[in-house]
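INFO  loader      accepted 1 record
INFO  loader      residues=104
INFO  predictor   begin
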Amino acid sequence: MTVMRLVWKMVRLLLKVVFLPVQASLTVIFLALGFFSGIVNIVCGAIGLICIVGGVAQMFGSSPSWSFALEGIIGGLLIFSIPCAIGIWGKQWICMLKVMINRI
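INFO  predictor   done
INFO  writer      dumping tokens
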């Protein structure tokens, strides 16, 4: 029984050494994803805001087109929210991988 514990501890130590570069690379990917998703969120937020403001302005214009206004508002919301969701989900998946590897 003691030999089995010793073997298991050796295997676990070996796995920790093997997975150390994987943890480091996941950390770098996590930081890069956070940086790039921040830039994309700023750009898409500005574009989405322009679409929403255009849709609202279309509603209160001289000849309001309700379908165009609704398309502008919904399109602006989608342009803003989809990149945010992708960035959050991507970072969450990387965190889950890091926790799973860390439990070894």
